[in-house]
Design goal:
With 262 residues, this protein is an alpha/beta fold. It contains eleven helices and five strands. The protein has two domains: 34 residues, no CATH class; 197 residues, SGNH hydrolase (Rossmann fold). It has a five-stranded parallel sheet, with helices on both faces. Helix 1 crosses helix 2, helix 6 packs parallel to helix 7 and helix 7 packs across helix 9.
Length: 262
Amino acid sequence: MKKSLVKKRSPIKTAFATSFIVSLAIFTTLFAMNIDLVTEFFGDNPTFRWIPQNIGNNPDDDNPSFSESFLEYIENTIFIGDSRTVGFVNYSYLKQENVYALNGQNQQAALYSRFVDLGTGSLLTAAQAVAITMPKRIIISYGINQMYSDQATFIKYYSELIDDLKAASPNSLIIIQSMLPVSYNYHIISGKPYLTNDNIDSYNVLLEQLAKEKGCKYLDTTPALKDEYNSLAPEFDSGDGLHFNPDAYKELLRYIEQHRVY
């Protein structure tokens, strides 16, 4: 009587299959527990950008637009500003196409400076660029590099910039973002005595008033980065008292997500 033949599995193939299944299960569990864990594993990589999803969504909000994902919200927004806005791109939190920003720029220079590259063959001003892209919303974050001006001049140029953007893209919602804080001693180490947080607060009051006068929205993001002393919290300081580290941009995105403006 012939013995039945039993085909043995290759131990190498079995080990590989088992290892693959276990690894997949661990990764899936981490993803289900918290998307941030996955982000920390991959790091701040342009191919795996951290975008908070549905954090703080309030089903009681009487706003149907709030049901869109935060990724969609960001993709429909253009951020205009200076080096502190550039940081969103430098740390790979936002795509370059959503950020029109230039180091050292202020609202006065933004009126005529050609610094936006949309692949048209020539650089464009911010207003010329939004005339082409027509975004749903524009978040403007200027001011820190214009604080050497008196308040009337400061507001004059900001107002003119808003007028240009409105004329270029009439259907875009324009949001004026508050100027963010600096370190408690930045006015000393920078040699710019006017750059104090109390002074920044006073200019932010003017920006909020300007938003009302122009029919824009105002977004106060200062609580996201301030400490109990009304200064830039040390854990968000890049080291120079003015610019931010990656954690600051993550916190800003969290705050913007929880305080979406429509």
